[in-house]
Amino acid sequence: MNLDDQLPLRYRFDKVVTKSYDSILASCEKLKETVEPDYKIKISGHHIWLHVGLLQREKHSPHLHLEIEKMEDGNTFVRGLFGPDPVLWTLFMFLHFVVGGIFVIFTVIAFSKWSLDQSYKFDLLVMFAMINAWFLLYFIARLNRKKGLKQARELEALMEKILE
């Protein structure tokens, strides 16, 4: 996997491994005890979450969600998703909805003022500021993703230990 060249903020991948479903869960349970202070591994059903440990966690630290499925030929299909910390992701989504809501409200106000032949320059200014805020949020997210790339590679190496 090449995490550097990926455009999306939340990198997804699919992988077929020859290891069986049960042996993946067993190796995950065994590895969970050895990496405990540095990494946190949660298992629920056919989902595995890999997190950076509390001592190394930063606001830009990623997590890795793995979904494992049995295949008919004995192999295992693994779906992975790298993402930011869920709290940070929720904050960014909230900010996006606020910016979008303000943009829509001021668009309606600007249209109303335009149809009534009133001045709507301030409303256009706010709309322009919201567009800039969208871009700012996007670039902040890209910067956080770039800062967390080293830890994402560490989580990828941990995943490889589980899958091999």
UniProtKB/TrEMBL annotation:
What keywords would UniProt list here?
Answer: Membrane, Transmembrane, Transmembrane helix
- Tell me where the transmembrane regions lie: 87-112, 124-141
Domain of life per record: Bacteria
Q: Mind telling me what this protein is named?
A: GTP-binding protein
Source organism of the structure: Flavobacterium lacus
